Amino acid sequence: MSKRVLLTTTSFQDTPGTHQDLLNSQDWEVIRARGPLSEAEMLDLSGDFDAFLCGDDSITQAVIDKSLPRLQIISKYGIGLDKINVDYATKKGLPVLFTPGVNHTTVAEHTFGLLLGITKDIQSNAVAVQNGEWVAGWKKPVGNEIMGKTIGILGLGRIGKEVAIRARAFGMSIIAFDPYFDDSFASENGVKRCSSMNEVLNNSDVVSLHCFLNDETEDMINAAKIAEMRDQVIVLNCARGELVNTKDMADALKSGKVGGYGADVLDAEPPAPGHVLIGAPNCIITSHIGSRTHESVQRQANRCLNNAINFFSGAEDVLCANGVL
């Protein structure tokens, strides 16, 4: 019997590559939707699928309950599992598969794109030039170098490490905090170990967030923490929007305490009209495209697909996040 699969991730669907050939070679009935889907949207669709090939869709207890007993796997395209009720899936014996190690290079590059965009005032300057403002006598913006500045990395996992490697190439000083700190990597790449998040915040010109979202990290960058940071600090967020208190960040940008906020993620995606960070001063927001490159999409999509293919065929090469196999 053919497997019935729900595919929701848009970068998978929109990007040509070898993953499309691999998907088409399977004897599956593929139903496509354009995520990320809300709980209500998932509930409308759920109930008659063998697998979810999903992005950041809301897979709650209610969605899982409606999807069982037919649903055999949740195959996540990516590594962030905060939108999936993993504990409940585990309780129900439902494997949650994921794709670690496929997008760290791309996300690190995007992080530096945001940093350079802010320090060199690239976004507003490019828009001004397009609008015909580059005329004789125009007062051009003056940017800042990043060489010699201190970047503080919160979360020294795969992506955080790639950010550190690039920061070193730019001549930056690097400090970092991670509960599972890799001393060997730090020694080889000139990263100073900090004993706490606060130590990083207090001593950085640039703070780059590369943490998973959970109860401890939600709103970790808030008014109280911002007050402890250096004046004109730049904050970069290519992890999860909910790590940062949106209102507090907007207020800090308006007051000038924070010199720039570069983010590829928001607390609500897509943002509702009037979102306080859209149009905030010295703020660059991109539409969650940090891992959306031709190279990275193919790696993620093929890993997501191979997890599902191997699971259904009984092969061992399956990356499972919750140990249910």
How is this structure best described in words?
- This protein is an alpha/beta fold and 325 residues long.
- It has two domains: 3-102 and 293-313, NAD(P)-binding Rossmann-like Domain (Rossmann fold); 104-285, NAD(P)-binding Rossmann-like Domain (Rossmann fold, 3-Layer(aba) Sandwich), CATH 3.40.50.720.
- The protein contains 13 helices and twelve strands.
- The strands form two sheets. The chain has a seven-stranded parallel sheet with strand order 8-7-6-9-10-11-12.
Strand content: 15-25%
From the alpha-carbon coordinates, what is the Rg to the nearest angstrom?
A: 21 Å
| Run of helices and strands | EHHEHEHEHEHHEHEHEHEHEHEEH
Given as residue ranges, the uncertain stretches (5+ residues, pLDDT < 50) are none
Could you give a short account of the major beta sheet? 7 strands, parallel
Number of domains: 2
For the record, the CATH class of the largest domain is Alpha Beta
Q: What structural class results from the helix and strand content?
A: alpha/beta
Which geometry do the CA atoms define? globular
Level-2 CATH architecture of the largest domain: 3-Layer(aba) Sandwich
Q: What is the name of the CATH topology of the largest domain?
A: Rossmann fold
Helical stretch tally: 13
Mean pLDDT equals 97
Instruction: State the distance separating the first and last CA atoms.
Output: 21 Å
Please bin the fraction of helical residues: 25-40%
Identify the CATH homologous superfamily of the largest domain. Answer: NAD(P)-binding Rossmann-like Domain
The side-by-side strand order for the widest beta sheet comes to 8-7-6-9-10-11-12
